[in-house]
Amino acid sequence: MTSPVPILSVQCGKARSFQGPDKPSAIAKTPVPGPVGVHRLGLDGDEQADLRVHGGPDKAIHHYPHDHYAFWRDVLDDHPLLADYGAFGENIATVGMTEETVCLGDRYRLGSALVEVSQGRQPCWKLDHRFGGQPVNARMVKARCTGWYYRVLEEGEVAAGDTIELLDRPHGEWTVARTFGLLIAGDHKRDREGLEALGSLDVLAEPWRKRRAQLLGA
């Protein structure tokens, strides 16, 4: 197993008007001092505006690699949001974990909580709006630097300065990058066999199971 990775920052945010009062969002998340409770549906003090597509047990916590910020500074001309953690609505920031090294079903000790990787993030229009209309959504899909979600298996607490430690990796062949490529980035067109094999991954979140079924039927 790999060495524990330091947690640089923990972010939370409240739902507020985003693109007018009828389209609220909690994508604007800011660092939280001190320990934060980790529960089945996420972090204490964190919200999701549209529970049809955000939040829930399989999207309780969003982890985005701070490793990618250098790429985004080049793409977005050092946008001011990139000066702090949470620019992409993430709850957890680290350096040393990416979509290429994290796998579906990985179990991590996050502070004192136990979490499991459930799916990669599927970016949406809110990222474009947050960055002033720049095509962040499309660039994120193309670069496949999307981050991932955790489900919470054991509740606890987490704070900046704690570590995240890999405890178990039952599906080492299914990185977040590979799965995202098949389901979102178009790799299924040349890897039907991989898309079919993905059906055996019992830890895959339900929205991505449905996405797989749609692609198989296309």
TrEMBL record:
<protein>
    <submittedName>
        <fullName>MOSC domain-containing protein</fullName>
    </submittedName>
</protein>
<dbReference type="InterPro" id="IPR052353">
    <property type="entry name" value="Benzoxazolinone_Detox_Enz"/>
</dbReference>
<dbReference type="Pfam" id="PF03473">
    <property type="entry name" value="MOSC"/>
</dbReference>
<dbReference type="InterPro" id="IPR005302">
    <property type="entry name" value="MoCF_Sase_C"/>
</dbReference>
<feature type="domain" description="MOSC">
    <location>
        <begin position="30"/>
        <end position="167"/>
    </location>
</feature>
<dbReference type="InterPro" id="IPR011037">
    <property type="entry name" value="Pyrv_Knase-like_insert_dom_sf"/>
</dbReference>
